[in-house]
Design goal:
Blueprint: H1 6-37, H2 41-45, H3 59-66, H4 68-100, H5 107-119, H6 124-133, H7 141-144, H8 151-164, H9 167-175, H10 180-198
Helix pairs in contact: 4-8
């Protein structure tokens, strides 16, 4: 076991104190918001609340939960997250699988076009104009469709399909009469699920 010198112990102590101070500076505002939400507003405005709530009550939370906009916001967040994730996964799989096939003509050109969009995009205004022309303003699809495809995820999944599934297995499946959709559903996705469950 290596013997710690005085300098090592001093460095460790200074590091611990410094990082504890930084952690307190970062965490305290969050704690203060929680404390202030449970305290009387007058005492918060007078600066009397610091480390613990005074005049504990839950009026603020009751007022928030009475607002329909807050609950609608939470519901929209859940719907957008679940629907957007499902659409993104389906689109990513359907784009990555053909690009991982050696016999797919033009996959290099298509991949190059897709990678180009990672470095150069139209920006916010052209995206809004496109959404407006498609009639998706003030609809759920305005949040889901523009982010339905991630080129980065497609490239990662394409690489996994190319390296994670033995070509021999796919060739045998084709010889047994599997088409590409059956191969994707039965061989590729099932193997991915098995590997994820083992990990």
């Amino acid at each position: 076991m290596k013997h710690e010198t005085f300098g090592d112990r001093l460095f460790g102590t200074v590091n611990t104190v410094f990082l504890t101070l930084i952690a307190f500076i970062v965490i305290y505002p969050l704690i203060f918001v929680l404390i202030a939400s449970l305290s009387e507003p007058a005492e918060v405005l007078n600066g009397e609340v610091w480390l613990y709530p005074k005049g504990v009550h839950f009026h603020a939370y009751e007022r928030i939960l009475e607002q329909d906009e807050v609950m609608n916001g939470y519901w929209n967040t859940i719907v957008y997250t679940v629907t957007g994730t499902a659409v993104n996964i389906v689109m990513t799989v359907l784009a990555a699988y053909p690009l991982s096939r050696g016999r797919f003509a033009g996959k290099g050109v298509i991949t190059a076009f897709m990678v180009f969009t990672m470095f150069f995009s139209g920006g916010l205004i052209p995206t809004y104009l496109l959404v407006k022309q498609l009639g998706m303003v003030d609809t759920i699809w305005a949040m889901i469709i523009p982010g339905a495809v991630s080129v980065y995820n497609i490239i990662i999944m394409r690489t996994f399909f190319q390296t994670g599934i033995p070509k021999e297995v796919q060739e045998v499946a084709h010889m047994d009469g599997c088409n590409d959709f059956q191969l994707l559903r039965i061989i590729v996705l099932c193997r991915c699920r098995c590997r994820l469950s083992r990990s």
